Amino acid sequence: MDQTQMAREAREAPALCAQQLRLNADLVRDAGRQLRDLAPPFAATLARGSSDQAAAFAKFLLETHAKVPTLSHAPSIGSLYHATSANFRNVPLIAISQSGRSPDLIAAAKDAREQGAIVIAVVNDAVSPLAELAQIVIPVHAGPETSVAATKSFVCTLVALTHLVAEWSQDEALLAALESTGEVLETAAIADWTDAVTLLQDASEMLVLGRGPTLPIAGEAALKLKETSSLHAEAFSIAEVAHGPMTLVGEGSAVLALAPLDVARTGLRDRLADFAARGAHVIAAGNAEDVAPAGLVLPSRTDVHPVLGAIAQIQSFYGLANALSLARGRNPDSPPHLNKVTRTL
């Protein structure tokens, strides 16, 4: 992997995640106990950008493991409209931000807290304004991140959210899986996905597919392809792609499938076979039997818990995103028109 700042920071994620789990053990155990005692009727997330993909991952975890319905609370509802419902009283609002300094997130979190929400800040900067107004703060411990493209902070955030939901739900399988996080992500970090560069170097648009735990991963991958390679990539559910976007796929189209390792893999093989039959360049990571129709199968861990498998896929993907950006003559550390902290209201 070429040593851009993006590449260096992404490579730090496995060790940082293992360290985070140790540092946060007592804090997250206590937070999980509080949330079980609270027994809320639903939960909500608050985020933008890559953090919103992490929020979608949290929704999947909460609904499948903690059995808590979860909605996405748009920042503008609180920051512009000041229309947060009083029904948020005693409802956990998980506010996710690398910097904890985006004005819209701070304003929306403040508005929700005034309506009685329990604000949980999942942040890299534990002394940020967002952290200061939260009742529960979960630091992701990613350390300084200077590349505009978030990498290690995103991976660390996914692990922190998984840890929180595992403690909240007391899911023994998920708690046990977390013990191997560092090793699984280390394997993912050295997996070489750069064979896909040749197929994507001249692409102008592509689909990124996922489902269940990998749909938010597909969303983050598509966002990074736009951000670092100016490649118009769109994420779709493996199921939803059949409801219209299928018409976009034909000879020479680029498709990246991030296959889930759980029941959400149902139907994937047939979908990829359809794309391949149309002459699409199909690239996939996942179980061999599921992704066999792909023209290029990427190395990935399939002997792990499906949640860790999904996190591992984005860890591997960052190496591809970095290499593709360079191959297309761009600087992944400093994409045009973007800043590290987005200040909107």
Write up what this structure looks like.
The protein is globular, with a radius of gyration of 19 Å. The longest helix has 22 residues. The chain has 15 helices and ten strands. The strands form two sheets. The protein has a five-stranded parallel sheet with strand order 2-1-3-4-5. It has a five-stranded parallel sheet with strand order 7-6-8-9-10, with helices on both faces. β1, α4 and β2 form a beta-alpha-beta unit. The two termini are 37 Å apart. α1 packs antiparallel against α15, α2 packs antiparallel against α10 and α8 packs antiparallel against α15. Helices cover 47% and strands 14% of the residues. The protein has 345 residues and is of the alpha/beta class.
Topology:
Blueprint: H1 5-11, H2 13-23, H3 25-38, E1 43-46, H4 50-66, E2 70-72, H5 75-79, E3 92-97, H6 103-114, E4 118-123, H7 129-133, E5 136-139, H8 152-169, H9 172-178, H10 181-190, H11 197-200, E6 205-210, H12 215-229, E7 232-237, E8 254-258, H13 268-277, E9 281-285, H14 288-291, E10 296-298, H15 306-327
Parallel strand pairs: 1-2, 1-3, 3-4, 4-5, 6-7, 6-8, 8-9, 9-10
Helix pairs in contact: 1-15, 2-8, 2-10, 3-8, 4-8, 4-12, 8-9, 8-15, 10-15, 12-15
Query: What are the secondary-structure elements, in order, as H or E?
Result: HHHEHEHEHEHEHHHHEHEEHEHEH
The main pleated sheet reads as: 5 strands, parallel
Instruction: Flag low-confidence runs.
Output: none
Which shape, going by the Cα principal axes? globular
Q: What's the β-strand tally?
A: 10
Output the radius of gyration.
19 Å
Distance between the termini: 37 Å
Instruction: Report the helical percentage.
Output: 40-55%
Number of helices: 15
